[in-house]
Each structure stands twice: as structure tokens, then as C-alpha cells.
Specification:
By secondary structure, the chain is of the alpha/beta class. The protein is built from 26 helices and 15 strands.
């Protein structure tokens, strides 16, 4: 009997004859790839029996299932790949229900899983390539002894401990499980840079000190592990003869040399011939993508993993813009966020949790996994404690180096496909990846809180400084136009030789095309010859060198560049402010105005950063709204709006420091209701104003005015009257339960500026005056 079936419907037709089973492979030629439409009535030309519509339907179903579980699990802080694993278990043979089985047989017929996994493995290849692009290989040479020590110990110790354990089990009667022990230990010992970087990004601690140390250690571990794996693959694929081993090793080294000395210089040539600010030509990007798969094919021919070529080429790509960032932007959405989740689901669809687990095999697998990770935790904690890392941070660090994720699932699938491990072991390993990933992420959230190091254990504000002491400021810069704004504000702060200002300038650059954040001290680079290389911060360095020269002996500037993700920039700012014992952080407002008052740019990332800094900054913070430059040779009409509260007291302290500059004419406006409140805040406000009230009569460049204001509309009307009389305003941010601001909070557009700052920055006032909004960060916050 001849039966014609579509290749996507089934690869094999089973025919029973004389108690024997024959497999009759049927293939429709030419194959039906694209459907003729929904209205075609021929059976073998139905839409879902065509290859492409079926593939699209499968990917759509997987996407919907993963997003459904992700919607619920993201609120419980599960790792991002867990919904993909659940989708694989649901669509695989692990869950056996009659209705579900019929659905899976019709939508995922036999043979299509492998086709789907092969196509979506493109996403995994691109993911590995992007990981290599985002790696900063120079970290290996710059990594300190801590990272090297911990990385090597965490690799070697579990392997050494496992040798006697394997010997013990070899003497036992474990049957088929014996061959799984070697790959089992190796799989639990190795750790991937991509997995750790993804975990740290999820937890938003990649910029923390612990995150940087973990990335350095994992990078060393990953490079060492990849090297050992390559040598092992060469040995395994040569048949044991020295000649074949030598030829394979030489071919592998030749491929790496080709990448380093041909591909990498060619990429630098592309970067050199790309004009600053322009995108890399798409033709170059497409050639590099073709090279990714060509080198993968070469790797496979050399008995190596297909991903090795993509990884090595990724390492050769110059990180960051313009080439690295162009590749990441072009491939990330297609590979990492579309094909990769489908690929993970396809790998997990091979898992069959309904297989019979004997008590012995389950106990051996579980004990091996548990013991290996416990040994690895101890191997990480002990050297970390010897390096003076606190116990909680050492435990968190050990958990990071035990992380599991997508790369491990792919590795286990490869072992299973190569028959290196059994189906029971494969199922146990996939489940262990989910359990370990959840334990690691939950344990890290419990053990490590990067914001706790920003807590104010001592006063770091302007009020706490002695009257004759210097002022240390951390000034943040995002774009070139922020430079003149900050130098104007620093001039207003009136540095003198008796009252100097130390400025730590932090140039914040968005991290694109790389994983590892960077903090550069340009003071350390001054003695180095930079050649023809142009730094991102050259203009910043020149501007503040000039500022320091103009205020010789009165101002000192230290320049830093931080390259990190916008969501994690606050870590760089807070850590530097903490290290430098800064009393004030100055950050630019997220909007920029043109000369005629029209908004030129509105950066939501900067606004988000400002909100975060207001919450976690370890010292006082000021948000600078800058509209027009202050003329160096003319007087500056400065106003301070005072209504009471700790933020206003802090702003008043800063305003009084400006009086050392004779160019500055300060006016302090005290908006009062006339009521006397006998509480602590009222007494502190009066004490802060005493010095201003008594001394303004004897100072030519300061005046004091008390204005009676009873409500919010009165405050708004008063500010509208004086806004064009001044060049610059210093105000406090918070005025809780203040009658002078009643009714104004509802209409505030920018909460980060407070009520008064928002009014002064409003376009309704048509003012060109700059505003510095100050928030005090005291010991009690």
C-alpha cells in the first residue's frame, strides 16, 4: 500500500508486516514550502502542511506561551529563561494529557522539532557572538590577583575533589550511569561569562564593586575553560595519533591567528574609515555576520563546537562604538530576543520527566550536583575572605560563580545529542539549572544590596562643613553643552586660596556594544602617551584644565569617565562620591533649551538617573537647570528663595559661600506667613537666618528681604514678579506641609525640581535664569 504524506506531517510511516517494523520514508517532491492560501481544498496542499506556515505557527505558539508565563513570573523575580524552560516542558513529552498530546502531534509533528531547533540555533550563535563582542578581553591582563586567584581555585578545586568521589562510585554497580559522571562534574564546574553578565544585568549590580570583581573572575574562568575544552576536543577527535593531534592543533591555531591578524585589523580599518558620529556601513556589518557562520563551519570541520568560531570572532571585534555597538544593535533583537528563547524551548522539549528514575541514579545525580556546588561555594568563599571581602559579599560572590543559564542548557543538550549522557541525566540537569538559577538569584537579592554602601553613616553635606573649610563637589557631565553650565556654577561657588574647591568631574557615557562597565581616571592617564587616539572626554579634560588654570591655587579638578548602562549610572556616581567624600553632587537637568527658549532635547534616561540619585545619593545633591551662559566680566544677580526646611538651609549655606566673589550680588528672599511655630524646624530655620539678617547690612553684595506670603498662588505671583530681575536662583527642593506651596504641588510638571524649582523652570515664566535645586542628604536619610 502506497501512502503519500507530507514531510512535515511525519518523517516515518510505520507498517507492521510479519511482526517486523519497517520505516518507509516518504518525501513530496517538490516540497511544499509556502501555502497556496486558506481556500485551497486539496488535502496535501493545506496551509499547515506547508513548511513555512507551520514554522511560523510553531514560533508564534512558543512566543505566546513564554510571554504568558513571563508575565506572571517576572513579579516573583524568577530568572528570565525560566518561562522558556516551562514552555519546553509543556510542549515536550513530560506532560502527557490526551488533548494536549493531540495538539502537539498536529502542531509539532515528528521531525519538526529538530528543524525548528536548527533554524533558531542561529539565535544562539548570534548570542554567543554578541557576548564575545561585548567582552573586554583586556580585562584579563588588567585583572588583579583577587580575580585570578578565585577564578583558578573555583575551577581546579571542584575537579580535584571529584576525582576520589568518581573513584568511589566506579567501585559501585551503577550500570549506564558510570559514563555520565565525567561530563556531569565538568558541566557543573564550568561557568559562562554570558550567563553571569545576564544575571548581573537582571539584578542591576553589574556596576557594583562585587559585579566588577565577578565579571573579571568569570572572564578568566571562561577563557581558561574554553582553552581546555578546545584542547580536549582536539584530543578526542584525532583518534589518539600524535600526527592527527598536531595537524588539528595547528589548524585550530591557524584559525585563531587568521582572526587576530587578518579579521581584527580589518575591523580596525572599518572603524578608522567611519566618520565620527556616523553609522558603520551596512555592507561591512553584513560581511562580519557572514564571517560568523563561516568560522563556525570551519570550527565544526576542526572537531570543535560550532560556536567557537563565532566566539573568537566576537572577541576580535573592537568593543564599543562604532562597530561593536552597530553589531549589537543589529543582532540583539533578532537573535537574542526572538530566536534565542525559541531555541531554549526546543532544547527543553527533549526532556522527558516521565522516564523512570531509579533511586540509585537519582541519588547519584542529585548528590553529584549538590556536592560540586557546595565545594565550589567553599572554594570561592575562602579566597574571597582571605582577600578581605566581607562574609556576606563573599557568599554573594560565590553564588554568582555558581550561576546557571542558557549556555548550560545548550551544553547539556549537546552532551545528550552526542550520547555522552543518558535521558535521565539530561532531565535531571535541566531541572537543576532552573533550581540553581532561582537559588542564586534569590540568594543574591537577600545577601547583597548595592545601595546599602551609600547609607549616610556620617554627615556629608554643606551645612556640616566648617566655615573656613574647602568644598568637595562631584560634577556630572553627559553632553558637551553641560561643560559651560558646570563651570559657570563652579565660578558662582567662588573658589579662593583660603576656601578652595575640589571638583571631581565624572563624564557619563552610555554603554553600547560591550558588557563590562569602565571607570577611567584621566589623572592616571596624563603620564601615558595617548598617540593619535582621541578620548571621548578630551573636551571635558581641556575645559576643566583651563578652569583649574584660571583658578590656580583655589580650584582642583580631577576628571573621570564612566561608561555604563543608563540604568546603572547611579552606581558610578554614588561610588565616586562616597570614595571622594563629596559634600555635593551636581547633575544637569534632562532638558536643554536653545537660545530662543525652545526645548532642543529631552533625555528620559537622564531624568531617570536624577530621580534615582535623589533617592540613594550619599551626600547633598543639586539639579542644575541651565538656560544661558553667565558673562565672566559682569556681575551676577543671584537670588536665594528661602521658606524653611533642611533643603532650604542647605541651599542657604551654599548661597552664603558665593559672597566671597565680589561679582556676585546675592538677594535672600524669605517667604514667611508671619505665624510663629514653636517647633524644632522653626528654631533651626531662625538660627540659619540669623547670620544673614545680621550681616547683610555690612556687606555690599548681599541683601535680605522678608516677604509675607500665605498660600501657593501668592508664592507663584511673587516669583513671576522677580524672575527676570536675576540671572541665577538657588532653591531647596522639598517643602512638605508648607502653606506657601499649598495647591502648587498638583500642578508640578517635574517633581525632581520641587515646587519652587519647577515654577522657576516653567516655560510659563519665560525666564532665562539658571536654577540650582538643592536637596540635603543628611545622616537621617
Amino acid at each position: 500500500m502506497n501512502t503519500i504524506i507530507n514531510v512535515n506531517q511525519s518523517l516515518f510511516l510505520t507498517i507492521d508486516k510479519f511482526n517486523e517494523t519497517f520505516y518507509n520514508v516518504c518525501y513530496a517532491s517538490p516540497p511544499t514550502i509556502v501555502s497556496d492560501g486558506l481556500w485551497v481544498q486539496i488535502d496535501y496542499r493545506k496551509p499547515m502542511k506547508a513548511s513555512l506556515p507551520l514554522l511560523e505557527l510553531q514560533m508564534l505558539i512558543i512566543f505566546c506561551i513564554t510571554q504568558f508565563f513571563h508575565f506572571f513570573l517576572k513579579h516573583l523575580d524568577f530568572p528570565l529563561f525560566v518561562p522558556q524552560v516551562i514552555a519546553g516542558l509543556l510542549l515536550g513529552p513530560s506532560i502527557q494529557l490526551e488533548a494536549l498530546d493531540r495538539f502537539k502531534k498536529s502542531v509539532f509533528p515528528y521531525g519538526t522539532q529538530d528543524t525548528l531547533a536548527t533554524i533558531t540555533s542561529i539565535g544562539y550563535t548570534l548570542f554567543i557572538f554578541i557576548t564575545g563582542v561585548q567582552m573586554d578581553l583586556s580585562m584579563v591582563t588588567r585583572t588583579g590577583h583577587k580575580a585570578w586567584t578565585i577564578a583558578i581555585i573555583s575551577l581546579v578545586v571542584p575537579l580535584i575533589i571529584s576525582v576520589p568521589v568518581i573513584g568511589f562510585y566506579l567501585q559501585s554497580n551503577l550500570g549506564e550511569l558510570i559514563k555520565d559522571l565525567g561530563p556531569l562534574v565538568l558541566s557543573q564546574t564550568m561557568i559562562s561569562f554570558a550567563v553571569v553578565a545576564s544575571l548581573l544585568n537582571e539584578l542591576k549590580i553589574i556596576n557594583s564593586e562585587l559585579g566588577r570583581l565577578a565579571l573579571s573572575s568569570v572572564l578568566v574562568s571562561d577563557i581558561v575553560g574554553t582553552t581546555v575544552s578546545c584542547v580536549a576536543n582536539v584530543l578526542g577527535g584525532t583518534g589518539g595519533t600524535m600526527k592527527q593531534f598536531s595537524l588539528s592543533l595547528v589548524a585550530l591555531i591557524a584559525m585563531i591567528i587568521f582572526v587576530l591578524f587578518v579579521c581584527r585589523p580589518a575591523m580596525y580599518w572599518i572603524v578608522k574609515h567611519t566618520r565620527e558620529g556616523r553609522l558603520v556601513d551596512d555592507g561591512y556589518v553584513n560581511i562580519i555576520i557572514i564571517m560568523v557562520f563561516a568560522l563556525g563551519w570551519v570550527s565544526a570541520k576542526l572537531d570543535q563546537d560550532f560556536m567557537l568560531g563565532a566566539f573568537v570572532l566576537g572577541l576580535a571585534v573592537p568593543e564599543g562604538p562604532p562597530l561593536g555597538s552597530a553589531l549589537v544593535k543589529k543582532l540583539e533583537l533578532f537573535g537574542q530576543f526572538w530566536f534565542l528563547p525559541t531555541y531554549v524551548t526546543c532544547l527543553v522539549m527533549k526532556v522527558d520527566l516521565s522516564v523512570n528514575f531509579s533511586q540509585t541514579s537519582f541519588g547519584v545525580i542529585a548528590s553529584f550536583i549538590t556536592v560540586t556546588h557546595i565545594v565550589k561555594v567553599i572554594a570561592c568563599v575562602v579566597p574571597a575572605l582571605m582577600c578581605k571581602i566581607p562574609l556576606k559579599d563573599a557568599l554573594a560572590f560565590a553564588l554568582i560563580l555558581n550561576a546557571k543559564g542558557v549556555v548550560d542548557i545548550s551544553f547539556f543538550s549537546t552532551l545528550y545529542d552526542d550520547s555522552a549522557i543518558s535521558a535521565q541525566t539530561y532531565a535531571a540537569l535541566i531541572v537543576s539549572v532552573v533550581i540553581i538559577a532561582c537559588i542564586v538569584k534569590g540568594g543574591l537579592k537577600f545577601l547583597y544590596d548595592p545601595s546599602r554602601k551609600y547609607a549616610g553613616y556620617q554627615k556629608r553635606n554643606i551645612m556640616s562643613l566648617k566655615s573656613n573649610s574647602g568644598l568637595r563637589i562631584l560634577a556630572c557631565i553627559h553632553k558637551q553643552h553641560n561643560i559651560s553650565a558646570l563651570t559657570d556654577v563652579l565660578d558662582i561657588c567662588s573658589p579662593t586660596t583660603q576656601h578652595p574647591i575640589i571638583v571631581d568631574v565624572l563624564h557619563l557615557i552610555e554603554l553600547v556594544g560591550r558588557t563590562c562597565p569602565i571607570l577611567i581616571s584621566h589623572r592616571l592617564q596624563k603620564s601615558l602617551s595617548m598617540g593619535s587616539h582621541k578620548s571621548y572626554s578630551d573636551d571635558v579634560i581641556l575645559a576643566f584644565d583651563h578652569f583649574e588654570h584660571e583658578n590656580y591655587g583655589a580650584a582642583t579638578a580631577h576628571i573621570y569617565t564612566a561608561i555604563s548602562s543608563p540604568t546603572l549610572m547611579h552606581d558610578d556616581v554614588c561610588q565616586l562620591a562616597l570614595d571622594k567624600v563629596a559634600s555635593l553632587i551636581i547633575v544637569p537637568f534632562h532638558q536643554r533649551w536653545s537660545a530662543d527658549g525652545v526645548i532642543e532635547s529631552d533625555d528620559k534616561n537622564i531624568r531617570s538617573l536624577n530621580f534615582t540619585l535623589l533617592e540613594v545619593a550619599p551626600c547633598s545633591i543639586g539639579i542644575l537647570v541651565y538656560r544661558s551662559p553667565l558673562l565672566n566680566n559682569s556681575s551676577v544677580r543671584l537670588a536665594m528663595i528661602y521658606m524653611g526646611g533642611k533643603d532650604d538651609r542647605e541651599a542657604l549655606c551654599l548661597a552664603k559661600r558665593t559672597l566671597r566673589n565680589p561679582r556676585i550680588n546675592l538677594v535672600v528672599y524669605h517667604l514667611a506667613t508671619g505665624e510663629r511655630m514653636q517647633n524644632l524646624e522653626y528654631l533651626l530655620d531662625n538660627k540659619a537666618l540669623e547670620g544673614v539678617q545680621k550681616s547683610h547690612n555690612g556687606m555690599e553684595n548681599m541683601s535680605y528681604h522678608e516677604v509675607k506670603v500665605n498660600d501657593g498662588p501668592g508664592t507663584s505671583a511673587f516669583l513671576r514678579d522677580i524672575v527676570n530681575e536675576h540671572d541665577f536662583f538657588i532653591v531647596g527642593r522639598r517643602h512638605e506641609n508648607n502653606p506657601q506651596t499649598s495647591g502648587l504641588t498638583t500642578w508640578s510638571e517635574f517633581q525632581e525640581l520641587g515646587v519652587i524649582g519647577d515654577l522657576l523652570a516653567s516655560s510659563d515664566f519665560e525666564s532665562r535664569a539658571g536654577v540650582l535645586v538643592v536637596q540635603q542628604q543628611g545622616k537621617d536619610t
